[in-house]
Amino acid sequence: MTSISQNAIDILRENDRGTYTVPTKGLYPFQWNWDSCLTALGQRHFDENRAWTEIETLFEHQWPCGMVPHIVFHQKDDGYFPGPDIWATDRPVPTSGITQPAVAGFALKRLFDRAADPAQVAPRAAALLPKIAAWHRWFFATRDPKGEGLVAIIHPWESGRDNSIDWDIPFDRVPTDGIAPYTRRDTQHADPAHRPTKAQYDRYLWLVEHFRALQWDTARLHDASPFQVVDPGFNAILLRACADLADLAETLGRSDLAAENRAFAARGLAAMEGLWSPDHGQYLARDRVTGQLIDSASVGGLLAAFCAIPADRAAIIAETIDRHATRYRVASHPPQDPRFDAKRYWRGPVWLVVNYMIADGLARAGQADAAARITASSLDLIRENGFAEYYDPQSGEPLGGGRFTWTAAMVLEFLSMEG
Ligand code: GLC
């Protein structure tokens, strides 16, 4: 029988398009931002050089303003919607016009720290450093216009947790009138009952068309968006990336970038306190338009443990995960929530990338047992159910796309964490 580690390597090779990796054949035929950065962490276990290329390719498509787009459409493929013609971003190689969780700074540091020969990869790290720093600078300049210390997403797709319950209330504010007729493609590859609804899709597209009408001027989009949400998970990833980038910049002699990123991290960490909910024992998202915290105890607020939150907060998050416990942890929404939907994408299912970041953060915060439970549960899930895009947290049923790249990458990481 093939080991899960060999299986994971086979999947990563199968989805490799030379200089970037597709998340899975059919459903997602291009390069996705956070998928690629996390994929590199898997690739490093069998081909370090290829892992660096994955991130370098992504940054070749960084916009002059500093934004790194959420999708790079390297090749034409009609199997995906919305494609380049809908985004119409006017880039040499077409890209989308929004971004995704800024995990690159974390991934870069991990690649560097675990490199077989750090001196050999130092020039590659040094070349990526200012590019990632420019992305972080863009985030705080355009997505935190009032200098609150935390950034907002302006489209649910930016969060990476597309149809999370977290977005329901702010998303209701997004109109659906006037959008061009369209045909979805995701529901041709996966069960429509496991995907976002039509009402959500109409709103996703309304926002895209609205931003396109503003010529994708990223300095204008935040204020022009009816959807502005401060997601603790998204911010935790950015703040961790800032702190990691600062450390790496120090090592590589860029004390200017180190100071800048350290300041972003410190200010953001202080502001995270405003998202803490003692009642839920975790962080919550804030609707920036109304100023209200959103009453949804999702995995976004647990993912906050990925950045350097206070140790007592991390301990409470570990308890909250136990309290919500499903057979496979960590459910994207707890089954106790009446809106929980075990099979619908980000409204209940387990996703291995999120597990990985929560486990990493908890381990760093001294919650080694809680981290080990997530690692063990994640590997059980794969051994029992194979490599899918996401899973029912109660039955373990594999859902969405199959032979999924980042799931495979995370398995290699989890195996190495297990020791
Ligand atoms: C879905 C996920 C997103 C991911 C993309 C490619 O849109 O919600 O997080 O990046 O698929 O795997």
Short key terms for the protein model shown above:
mainly alpha, Glycosyltransferase, two-stranded antiparallel sheet, 5% strand, binds alpha-D-glucopyranose
Uncertain parts? none
Q: How would you classify the helix and strand content by structural class?
A: mainly alpha
CATH architecture: Alpha/alpha barrel
CATH class: Mainly Alpha
| N→C terminal distance | 21 Å
* Integer average pLDDT: 97
CATH topology: Glycosyltransferase
Percent range for β-strand residues: 5-15%
Radius of gyration: 20 Å
By DSSP (H or I, 4+ residues per run), the number of helices equals 18
Number of strands: 8
- What does the overall shape look like? globular
Proportion of helical residues: 40-55%
Largest sheet: 2 strands, antiparallel
Bound molecules: alpha-D-glucopyranose
Number of domains: 1
| Strand order within the widest beta sheet | 1-2
User: What is the H-and-E element order?
Assistant: HEHHEHHHHHHHHEHHEEEHHHHEEH
Protein name: Mannosylglycerate hydrolase MGH1-like glycoside hydrolase domain-containing protein
Domain Mannosylglycerate hydrolase MGH1-like glycoside hydrolase: 28-407
Keywords: Glycosidase, Hydrolase, Plasmid
Family: Belongs to the glycosyl hydrolase 63 family.
What would you note in describing this structure?
The longest helix is centred in the N-terminal third of the chain and has 26 residues. The chain is mainly α and about 425 residues long. The chain has a single domain, classed as Glycosyltransferase, CATH 1.50.10.10. The protein is built from 18 helices and 8 strands. The strands form 4 sheets. It has a two-stranded antiparallel sheet with strand order 1-2. Strands 3-6 form a two-stranded antiparallel ribbon. Strands 4-5 form a two-stranded antiparallel ribbon. The structure holds alpha-D-glucopyranose. Keywords: Glycosidase, Hydrolase, Plasmid. Belongs to the glycosyl hydrolase 63 family. This is Mannosylglycerate hydrolase MGH1-like glycoside hydrolase domain-containing protein.
